[in-house]
């Protein structure tokens, strides 16, 4: 009876553990019995090598109830001071339409979905991404856009490497206009160094007669100036340069496009299209180019194809290149995007439409022009002559006092240089803001109405030739959904086409699609976190820095590292940041020649791509018949390359889903030959509380906060990939040129950045803070144990039907298992992709297909799935295996069966011409419980080959839907 329990039990401080972990104690007992283990502890002893087990539990704080953790974080958030930001520099306050905030950003139907590799159950977000691409194409004046990158600075770095791929110039020099944003220059400089490019940072006019393989220009510039770049671009291209223009989508609503000026690439941030600043992110970068360069463009591209009925259907076009990265040639890690934020930005354009955007952009420009004209009349030295939303002005010795007076009045201005201040306006700026700022600067009252009338009569502060004359956003999708009712229904119609975690489990191996708890998500949209500019004065960000510091301490405890770098804003970028730290470490010791990176055959495709980005030579290490690293081969190659060995990249538990017994020996071998050990953190969910990368012997590792630490995948982003480092590598982790990552005595001071903002996508760190606060040390360990239990339960239940390819020495798997489909394919022609598509008819997203072994599927159930959900998934796969036996027995032909025809849509059910040897019931309700919660794929199987051969990456005309 509850009344007989002690008060400590009734207080339920650990109640979230039971909310997060799927199986209850009774279900765990049944699952343990099914796999032949007496207890959870015995299972872990049989699975995790004793040599790497932590000697004690993690000294993390005790778990907190959800409302307690929220109250604690709210108290921390209240320490932030949210001034009106006039800093600009690529970050602007914005108004997120509430219909988008509630129905996309705060909606698990959108934020818990996975990357749309299984397109038939992702048509909603694929259409939303197509809208984003069309918006970017229209505004940039180029022919093709991708579905987002991580941030503006890393997009600029990608533009540089793309320019090298497509340019015919023999020069090794890349030009960066000195008027680019300083954070962009910082990131591009870091990237250029490892490719061996010579970076020239200069005023473009001063080097116009020199040759470069590429160039990066800013439009409008960091000073706010707007100039026609046509002649500059033509001059650079005449000498063989590929020219990229970093731009601003809001400015491009009014201004002549980069494409119209001759640019080859346009890039920037979509942040001001309804995405909060969030102390730096997450924000979707845009990237557009000419169609001739599409196969050299980084990032994911959404395209149009047809399904089996000939209907229009969306898919990731050219997606094979992402799933099978060319290891020896990769120089861009394209598994980096911000899908949720791209969807929000695209919907911002859908909701406002072309006229609404022109009004917003026009208001921003008008308010800026009023301020500028007033300052000129007041005798202020205005340095920016032609502008959209930003002006710089010289106040001489008065600059500091004006800056401080503005702070006291609640405004953050940009300190440009001694005596020079900058002001940028945005969607939230009002006439009262302009009047207040003018009075602070000019010390007189602004006659707003008079100056407004005169500015309006003068038409603009910009010459006519700088305004765009072409139509934008003319597609019907941008001209239909302008009432909230219409927008709400449009968003709901798209959500209905997508399978996310709010419907059923997503058992993707190596992706850890666990519960993204509501309480973890709530703080992301608090204005105390969302409204902060990343370069705001640090005394205004006390709450942010406290939250980041406590999360840093917790992650040190979890990983066994001495330092944490929070800057990387994806797992792939974490890999890059880690290898950069290793390279800098070797260089500091006079070992710059160390450039060999050992990578096991089983590694993620991102690993060799990252190594190439750091100018390392990839040497592949064999695996043995059990899927483990071949220690003999590793030792031989480490000895062979000892003089030049930089590092080993290893995933642990292995990508094959087992805890390798020799992992400490592997680390020792690499260390003995002068190398460092980089541990890929993709499988950290099987370590937390039981072992740790630092305890095992790794020197650096990234943590996928969007896997192990509950940040949702968002349909392909956002993510965060901070790295943990041992003390000797800490001095070489990323710093930031604009906003320091720590105190003045920080060990990494002056190191180049890898992301645009000092703490990456800082606003979503609140999710992982809540995750660790609510679970505590007890909960995270239990989560790991149950993740291993769930995986072993699935493996044991399915092994008789689909052989489990790899197991550890005691017959156990780690947190995931690989099911071998190759014998089935050899006997029947049914491939792993057919099983993936058939699972849609049962209401499930497929496991990971053909990775890390072709012809297999990899299942990771996570700790958050209940026994009932696991049993449904198991039943679905067993039922599919029985369907395959019907093919084996000749009941169904190899080309006309439920698997080859999957997925089945509603159109199949009502089709009068049913020609299949199985019933409609078998097609769409193959098990009794499917009908109770039926998910209907909105299209039939999509023709991937047609989509790649007929590349169309813009919104199709409305007739395509009618047809």
Any chance you could write out the topology, listing elements then pairs?
Blueprint: H1 7-11, H2 15-20, H3 25-35, H4 40-47, H5 66-77, E1 84-85, H6 98-105, H7 108-111, H8 123-140, E2 144-145, H9 152-166, E3 173-177, H10 182-195, E4 198-202, E5 214-219, H11 230-238, E6 242-248, H12 249-252, E7 265-269, E8 285-289, E9 301-306, E10 312-317, H13 320-323, H14 339-377, E11 381-382, E12 390-394, H15 399-408, E13 411-412, E14 414-417, E15 420-424, H16 431-442, H17 448-457, H18 484-495, H19 518-521, H20 527-530, H21 542-559, E16 563-565, H22 571-588, E17 596-600, H23 606-613, E18 617-621, H24 631-640, E19 645-651, H25 663-672, E20 676-680, H26 693-696, E21 700-702, E22 723-725, H27 765-798, E23 817-820, H28 822-828, H29 832-841, E24 848-849, E25 856-859, H30 867-888, H31 906-910, H32 920-924, H33 944-949, H34 958-962
Parallel strand pairs: 1-13, 3-4, 3-5, 5-6, 6-7, 17-18, 17-19, 19-20, 20-21
Antiparallel strand pairs: 2-8, 7-8, 9-10, 11-12, 12-15, 14-15, 16-22, 21-22, 23-25, 24-25
